[in-house]
Write a structure and sequence with these properties.
By secondary structure, the protein is an alpha+beta fold. The chain is 20% helix and 32% strand.
Amino acid sequence: MASWSEFAADEPRLADGIRVLLQQYGPGFGYLATVRADGGPRVHPVSPVITDEGLFCFIIDSPKRRDLERDGRYALHSFPPEESDDEAYVAGRARPVTDPARVAQLAQSARAEPLVDWLLFEFTVDVAMLTRREQHPAGIPGLTPGRPAVRVWLDPHAPSAAATPLAVPQARPTRLSRDVQCTAA
């Protein structure tokens, strides 16, 4: 499981594109999907915090926090921009941050309310995806104007294929980043 900083070091342009979409309205804003106790999905709006050290989220006492404490699997999706249908997605595992100094430093820099019952979680990155749906400049091989450009990164150290969602390719021989051309439905 790669940290955000490991992912960003491996794919800086992809990480920057995802960061831009998650922080397009100032503080981070996205939708967090967690796994309910019965195995079903649960989706919540959240304010992720991205630093050079990692991807974090302050989670108040709520069903989403209990989901993460019980089963750390998550998916985080950006809020759509007003001018396009671009999207960013990361998925992996969330784990509580227990170092008091690190929690205090992030709480201060992110202006997390100290009197609220929240826990700080760090999100690892097993899968990262950025989709751009804007007109592409002519001359870029493989890209057709009006079609989405999709960039995907997979961490080879992510959990085994048995624990991997079906939508994620099963082979993970090396860290992989690729461009994908989507066709119209």
